[in-house]
Amino acid sequence: MRELSLETQRKTQLADITSLVGEAVSGQAGTAAVLYVPHTTAGIVIQANAGLAVARDVEAALERIVDESWSWQHTEEEGERNPWSHVRAALTATSVTIPLRGGELALGAFQAIFFCEFDGPRTRTVLVSIF
Amino acid sequence: MRELSLETQRKTQLADITSLVGEAVSGQAGTAAVLYVPHTTAGIVIQANAGLAVARDVEAALERIVDESWSWQHTEEEGERNPWSHVRAALTATSVTIPLRGGELALGAFQAIFFCEFDGPRTRTVLVSIF
Amino acid sequence: MRELSLETQRKTQLADITSLVGEAVSGQAGTAAVLYVPHTTAGIVIQANAGLAVARDVEAALERIVDESWSWQHTEEEGERNPWSHVRAALTATSVTIPLRGGELALGAFQAIFFCEFDGPRTRTVLVSIF
User: What is the mean pLDDT of residues A54-81?
Assistant: First the structure.
């Protein structure tokens, strides 16, 4: 298992980690790579690598779908500072399994791997295991 | 493959199954554990283990994001009793793959595994396979 | 790794691929099958096989949760034609891992595997790997 480290810059941010994961996986023998996010206010999605357009639209949509102005019943009681961050993370994936082909990630032609930060900026970790 | 059984108590409920899964996995040799939910009105999420606060907020948010007052076109036609339960389940995961480290789940420090009930109370099953 | 091909018919469509995947997997020795969607405007969900009712309700709900009338900031700038398709895909799964039992998918009694098209009609691919 490899532990990849990254720094996020914004509160809500899809950070492209395709190269980071690709380097960790490259040349290793195996059938697939499992990516796992050990955080509760972050997730992972595979989305389009077309500049920043799609990533920014996904960020804005997730902020809109989970509205911070809702009444968050447990925020006061238990001091939960950022309940919306947890819900946004729950709507993305905690693990994703990507097949390997010839020792490389079998991503589609337009796919990139994005770490989804919902409570940044922070230092974050992604675990990568090969099967 | 192990089949874990649990009872849910409420219609919409994130039930912490971390100990249940941990015991099933503990000491087994392998690279990762795959959890699989064989139900269509339930799912699985990895979220914060900080008391009930986050779990209750995720429950409330999923009930809000998928509103039962929407017109559900097929409810009458085909007698579908709980279409919203299926949609809420579709927004969570059916499978999650968690790396193992020294024979234990490599969960993050604040992570718990939650079974997501969207049509309880019921008796439910989670499948656990080790790779 | 097998590459399954399918044709979708509608813009937003849950297409039942249970038989297609079942045939690709049938009789193979292994612990689980990983399904992977190499597209950025499509995903995969496991949902109810009860006629078309549930699938149509999931389609309608995802179109409702991600509203095309929102202001999509990057649509004009970078010519992104279908930002909502990407967001809908991000809310579903890119990969799902299904345990095998006696060489067959260990799906629950009411489960079917659906390819989720969010920008159809198109010719699409699903990758299937056995562990």
Answer: 86
Element at B35 (helix H, strand E): strand B32-36
Determine the Cα–Cα distance for residues C95 and C72; give it in Å rounded to an integer.
27
CB contact under 8 A, C99 and B40: no
User: Which residues are paired to C42 by β-bridges?
Assistant: C117
Task: Identify the band that residue B81 occupies on the pLDDT scale cut at 50, 70 and 90.
Answer: confident
The pLDDT tens digits for C20-74 are 999 999 988 899 999 999 999 999 999 998 677 899 999 999 999 999 999 887 6
Question: Could you tell me the two tokens for C61?
Answer: 């709900």
Residue A115 exposed, middle or buried by CB count within 10 Å (0-12, 13-18, 19+): buried
Q: B76 touching C, CB under 8 A? A: no
Read off the tokens for B86: 């299926």
- How far apart CA C70 and CA B121 sit, in angstroms, is 37
Beta strands per DSSP E along A13-68: 13-16, 32-36, 42-48
Q: Which of C30, C37, C42 is nearest to C4 (CA)?
A: C37
Which chains touch A (3+ CB pairs under 8 A)? B, C
At B16, list the tokens.
Answer: 């912490």
Tell if the CB–CB gap between A36 and B91 is shorter than 8 Å.
no
Q: How far is B74 from chain C (nearest CA, A)?
A: 5
Average pLDDT, chain C: 93
Which residues of C are less than 8 Å from A57 in CB distance? 72-75, 80, 83, 86-87
Task: Report ipTM (2 d.p.).
Answer: 0.95
